[in-house]
């Protein structure tokens, strides 16, 4: 089974660029920038990854201060994007949507366009060198003003169809509910972006219907709190909204009290469309292979269940129909060769 998981053609739809920087690269680039107080790489690595669990989402989010320090130059952002795709290609990920908040990278003088173009260059170069296909999702931060979110939507619109496929809303869900950013997402919808929203990650179930009805979400990041309300689950099913679940990250951030409470089986039994993703490969110290393995061990998933997740991801991907057909064919051909279908 382990070997099959390694070789499976995979899709990643929820992956934050700043949470997925190679630790070695972070260490190297940080040492160039400042005097490091850590004894060596091992000690540093422990700081940037969550070991087994942490106490809360707040503690989890502290890990992001290190990558954000070095993701302030075009060269570094391009390199980090390229390396992530190189790593994912080694794991036979065929298609990935990488998300980032452009304005978290403008603190040392970069412009919005320079940030976005650096990511797109890294993606382009990885496609040429490894064949891995990727698209970008621009994140609006909940704790910023709606004006800032409108800027993300407006400035980013010229990249739609040129590597950018969607916008997202992320950050502190408890203090900054979806409706605060309604105007920005209305504009995003008019401009033709796809829309995915982080909602119901930290227990606030009403953020899920609000994200769908007010912010036009086609996909929901995490959505775990939907399990609390049958009406919300019914709505997700009826409107064909895909959930981007990230099991290992969700347990680390205490999105659920214990593994037994994680509702992935519950959702599948209710015929909700589930995709499984990593969230942050470095911070969560995970990979799609580890996520699948976790589901097999803890929730008795079999290979058919995993193939269903991958099939859902093909359907949920923010791709043009011709691109989706191509991706489906690429994946099916490999599964046939592996004698899995
Ligand atoms: Zn996320």
From TrEMBL:
<feature type="active site" description="Proton donor">
    <location>
        <position position="201"/>
    </location>
</feature>
<dbReference type="GO" id="GO:0004000">
    <property type="term" value="F:adenosine deaminase activity"/>
</dbReference>
<feature type="site" description="Important for catalytic activity">
    <location>
        <position position="222"/>
    </location>
</feature>
<dbReference type="GO" id="GO:0005829">
    <property type="term" value="C:cytosol"/>
</dbReference>
<comment type="function">
    <text>Catalyzes the hydrolytic deamination of adenosine and 2-deoxyadenosine.</text>
</comment>
<dbReference type="InterPro" id="IPR001365">
    <property type="entry name" value="A_deaminase_dom"/>
</dbReference>
<dbReference type="InterPro" id="IPR006330">
    <property type="entry name" value="Ado/ade_deaminase"/>
</dbReference>
<keyword id="KW-0479">Metal-binding</keyword>
<keyword id="KW-0862">Zinc</keyword>
<dbReference type="GO" id="GO:0009168">
    <property type="term" value="P:purine ribonucleoside monophosphate biosynthetic process"/>
</dbReference>
<dbReference type="Pfam" id="PF00962">
    <property type="entry name" value="A_deaminase"/>
</dbReference>
<feature type="binding site">
    <location>
        <position position="171"/>
    </location>
    <ligand>
        <name>substrate</name>
    </ligand>
</feature>
<protein>
    <recommendedName>
        <fullName>Adenosine deaminase</fullName>
        <ecNumber>3.5.4.4</ecNumber>
    </recommendedName>
</protein>
<feature type="binding site">
    <location>
        <position position="18"/>
    </location>
    <ligand>
        <name>substrate</name>
    </ligand>
</feature>
<dbReference type="GO" id="GO:0046103">
    <property type="term" value="P:inosine biosynthetic process"/>
</dbReference>
<dbReference type="GO" id="GO:0009117">
    <property type="term" value="P:nucleotide metabolic process"/>
</dbReference>
<keyword id="KW-0378">Hydrolase</keyword>
<comment type="similarity">
    <text>Belongs to the metallo-dependent hydrolases superfamily. Adenosine and AMP deaminases family. Adenosine deaminase subfamily.</text>
</comment>
<feature type="binding site">
    <location>
        <position position="198"/>
    </location>
    <ligand>
        <name>Zn(2+)</name>
    </ligand>
</feature>
<feature type="domain" description="Adenosine deaminase">
    <location>
        <begin position="9"/>
        <end position="332"/>
    </location>
</feature>
<dbReference type="InterPro" id="IPR032466">
    <property type="entry name" value="Metal_Hydrolase"/>
</dbReference>
<dbReference type="GO" id="GO:0043103">
    <property type="term" value="P:hypoxanthine salvage"/>
</dbReference>
<dbReference type="InterPro" id="IPR028893">
    <property type="entry name" value="A_deaminase"/>
</dbReference>
<dbReference type="GO" id="GO:0008270">
    <property type="term" value="F:zinc ion binding"/>
</dbReference>
<feature type="binding site">
    <location>
        <position position="14"/>
    </location>
    <ligand>
        <name>Zn(2+)</name>
    </ligand>
</feature>
<dbReference type="GO" id="GO:0006154">
    <property type="term" value="P:adenosine catabolic process"/>
</dbReference>
<feature type="binding site">
    <location>
        <position position="16"/>
    </location>
    <ligand>
        <name>substrate</name>
    </ligand>
</feature>
<feature type="binding site">
    <location>
        <position position="16"/>
    </location>
    <ligand>
        <name>Zn(2+)</name>
    </ligand>
</feature>
<dbReference type="GO" id="GO:0046936">
    <property type="term" value="F:2'-deoxyadenosine deaminase activity"/>
</dbReference>
<feature type="binding site">
    <location>
        <position position="279"/>
    </location>
    <ligand>
        <name>Zn(2+)</name>
    </ligand>
</feature>
<keyword id="KW-0546">Nucleotide metabolism</keyword>
